[in-house]
Write a structure and sequence with these properties.
The complex is a heterodimer. Chain A has helices at residues 22-37, 46-57, 62-72, 76-83, 105-123, 165-177, 193-200, 216-228, 240-244; strands at 97-102, 129-130, 136-141, 153-155, 158-160. Chain A is of the alpha+beta class. The longest helix of chain A is centred in the middle third of the chain and has 19 residues, at 105-123. Chain B folds into three domains: 21-230, NADH-ubiquinone oxidoreductase 51kDa subunit (Rossmann fold, 3-Layer(aba) Sandwich), CATH 3.40.50.11540; 240-322, Ubiquitin-like (UB roll) (Roll); 327-424, de novo design (two linked rop proteins), CATH 1.20.1440. In chain B, α2 (31-37) packs parallel to α6, α14 runs antiparallel to α15 and α14 (347-364) runs parallel beside α16. The two termini of chain B are 42 Å apart. Chain B has a five-stranded mixed sheet with strand order 6-5-9-7-8, with no helix packed on it. A four-stranded parallel sheet of chain B has the order 3-2-1-4, with helices on both faces.
Chain lengths: 280, 437
């Protein structure tokens, strides 16, 4: 599992031959100054600066770490310590496209495991490995907050909903061929790893207006409510009677906004199981 | 008759270009802010308290009370930090909200900042959802251009800046003090409390940390009144919330309803468990909340009732699993997650999740050794209540509840691989294709 090479930073300074050329460095300095200006204290700029480094170098390089350290008055070891904590900061040159298959419990069971297996066979790489042509880095990812679209695959952090092993292979092949690929809910096309890293550093790419506002699953409750004429109570609508009768109308149904719950004060607002009041 | 859905936050998600300021204003947006700026900040804290709004990020702490905990102004900065690091397995409400209606959050932040005397607020968006980040960045830019942010907002004399910050992939940063450390440019590790963020939060200054859905609920409270909000839900769990159904359900998705609705009612509108299958177990609020079974279908999904039944309302992330699913496999995969995401700061969580993972991995393979089930229970009991933060506690939930309701399956896994007892292809959404092809 994982990559054969050791991370190439944290053990020795960057050789002088690796230094940014003057033009790149000038642009980096301008961007970094803008990032730092967003925060009351400059150390807060470290996470976006590491995204910025990845937008230039394609991963977190030793020279990138030294650049961040110099910008923020930190040691290289401090920056390296932060970079190694977060999974989006890559220790090795990343592919142009990261394909992340959700293999947390729900997506895994719904098909994520099968998708990962098929992709891994198809691409000939395992978790956190990159195809020899440098196109695709394959990853298992944790829950990406789209469980109602399971199984979910992310391509450079754009949503591909309701995937199958076949659709995921098609996605990988299309990305590899350089064809434009449209996510289920996202920009009109999947951008490259470096382009997306620049957005995550806080530099908009003008694509916010692309793609839908919401996918089908996001709208399912809203549509059902519209069909049935359900809505929240209008402001000013009396709720006093509802409270007295447990929210039931004389006909036995529930008024808008009321549930059939009988209130049973059983815990403190932020109590957790194990606080002593919960049966084991 | 049953409980009706009440779309408020989700109400305009199907509007054309719903994410734009133009669309938001057309549907009544920024009424709440105008109402708020005409009032005294202390009055707003009072309204939040009266409404009964409780934190929508899982813990359910009363939002107005949290605001009220800030010490008296001392002339220095006070901060609002919005937790948009949604990563709890099963939880998928804040990301669609920010993609479809990011202005709800921006307006809520402006109102909240005015209420607590904050002039620089932050949104911490998880980094793995780039399009959501784009939408929030643009929403803030649009709000600046329209005078809802910046200097002298709507002529009130109130100033506010918002910084939208992207994380970089770490579940632990959803814990509020780890989030603050991360926002300060450090590894995201939780802080010892006290001091609580209200006293010493971001940059050691008084800070309110609230979930996206909590803050997004504020504009409607200001526009419609605390009584309107409190008229929904139950006596102690007031208002509406987004319930996220996922897994083996006919129509997975987002269902906004008053707190206190039951899973039976939600399944009824969602078309039930997928055809030809039956409910086996489910989580009421993400993987960190102890699982429920068919016997809990009628538990009202409010903070008190769920706690009384032995779990937590959490984030209302209802993950539905049918009879094809091995509980051992589900628990094992969740523990992989907690072991991977444990920040390593405290020993019970770091070591405990590691050892839970070792045992569950061999159980998955049907190679348990005598005493494994007792050891699982013992390790989990030694994590619970002994960890720095709720991540460790959360990791014990699937283990304890899995053993409690499905111990026979764990016994079976001592000698039989779970993929033999529960062929994995049967759980997939494309199971039928496999059978017919």
């Amino acid at each position: 599992m994982g990559h054969a090479n050791l991370p190439n930073y944290g053990t020795a300074p960057a050789p002088e031959s690796d230094a940014y050329d003057a033009q790149v460095l000038d642009a980096l300095l301008v961007d970094a100054a803008e990032v730092v200006r967003r925060y009351p204290q400059k150390e807060s700029a470290l996470l976006p600066l590491l995204h910025l480094v990845q937008s230039v170098d394609g991963y977190v390089t030793t020279r990138g770490i030294e650049f961040c350290a110099a910008m923020l008055g930190l040691s290289a070891a401090e920056v390296s310590g932060v970079a190694t904590f977060y999974t989006q900061y890559k220790r090795h040159p990343n592919g142009d496209y990261t394909i992340g298959v959700c293999t947390n419990t729900l997506c895994a069971l719904m098909g994520g495991d099968a998708i990962f297996e098929r992709l891994s066979d198809h691409l000939g790489v395992d978790h956190d490995e990159t195809t020899p042509d440098g196109a695709i880095t394959l990853e298992r990812v944790e829950c990406n907050a789209a469980c109602d679209y399971a199984p979910v695959v992310m391509a450079n952090w754009e949503f591909f909903d309701n995937q199958t092993p076949e659709s995921a292979v098609d996605l990988a092949d299309a990305l590899r061929s350089g064809a434009p690929v449209r996510p289920s809910r996202g920009a009109d096309r999947v951008c490259t790893f470096r382009q997306v890293s620049r957005v995550l550093a806080g530099f908009p790419d003008g694509r916010a207006d692309e793609g839908p506002g919401a996918g089908e699953a996001s709208l399912v409750g809203l549509r059902l409510a519209k069909e049935r004429g359900w809505h929240a109570p209008e402001p000013g609508q009396a709720q006093d009677n509802a409270a007295d009768t447990g929210g039931r109308t004389p006909s036995g149904g529930l008024e808008p906004g009321r549930s059939g719950s009988t209130d049973t004060p059983a815990n403190e607002p932020d109590e957790k199981p194990g606080d002593g009041k919960v049966e084991k | 008759m049953s409980t009706q859905l009440t779309p408020v936050l989700t109400r305009y998600w199907d509007e054309p270009r719903s994410w734009t300021l133009e669309s938001y204003e057309r549907t009544g947006g920024y009424t709440g802010l105008r109402n708020a700026l005409a009032k005294d900040p202390a009055e707003l804290v009072g309204i939040a308290k009266e409404s009964g709004l409780r934190g929508r990020g899982g813990a359910g702490f009363p939002t107005g009370m949290k605001w009220g905990f800030l010490p008296e102004p001392d002339g220095g900065p006070r901060y609002l930090v919005v937790n948009a690091d949604e990563s709890e397995p099963g939880t998928c409400k804040d990301m669609p909200l920010l993609m479809a209606s990011p202005q709800l959050l921006v307006e809520g932040m402006a109102i909240t900042s005015y209420a607590i005397g904050c002039t620089h607020a932050f949104v911490y968006v998880r980094g793995e959802v780039v399009h959501v980040y784009r939408r929030v960045l643009q929403a803030v830019q649009e709000a600046y251009a329209a005078g809802y942010l910046g200097r002298d907002i709507l002529g009130s004399g109130f100033d506010l800046d918002i910084t939208v910050h992207a994380g970089a992939g770490a579940y632990i940063c959803g814990e509020e003090t780890a989030l603050l450390d991360s926002l300060e440019g450090r590894r995201g590790q939780p802080r010892l409390k006290p001091p609580f963020p209200a006293v010493a939060g971001l940059y050691a200054r008084p800070t309110v940390v609230n979930n996206v859905e909590s803050i997004a609920s504020v504009p409607s409270i200001l526009a419609n009144g605390a009584d309107w909000f409190g008229g929904m839900g139950t006596e102690k769990s007031k208002g509406y919330g987004i319930f996220s159904l996922s897994g083996h359900v006919t129509r997975p998705g987002q269902y906004e309803a008053p707190l206190g609705i039951t899973l039976r009612e939600l399944l009824d509108v969602a078309g039930g468990v997928r055809a030809g299958h039956e409910l086996k177990f489910w989580t009421p609020g993400g993987s960190s909340t102890p699982m429920f079974t068919t016997e809990h279908l009628d538990v009202p999904l409010d903070f008190e009732s769920v706690a009384k039944a032995g779990s937590m309302l959490g984030t209302r992330a209802l993950q539905i699993f049918d009879e094809t699913v091995s509980v051992v496999k589900a628990v094992s995969r969740w523990i992989d997650f907690y072991a991977h995401e444990s920040c390593g700061k405290c020993t019970p969580c770091r070591e405990g999740t590691y050892w839970l993972k070792q045992i569950l991995t061999r159980l998955e393979a049907g190679q348990g050794v005598p005493g494994d089930l007792e050891k699982l229970d013992d390790i989990a009991s030694n994590i619970l209540g002994r960890s720095f933060c709720a991540l460790g506690d959360g990791a014990t939930s699937p283990v304890h509840s899995g053993l409690k309701y499905f111990r026979d399956e764990f016994e079976q896994a001592m000698h039989t691989p779970v993929d033999v007892s529960f062929p994995p292809h049967r759980s997939t959404v494309f199971a039928k294709e496999d059978v017919t092809s």
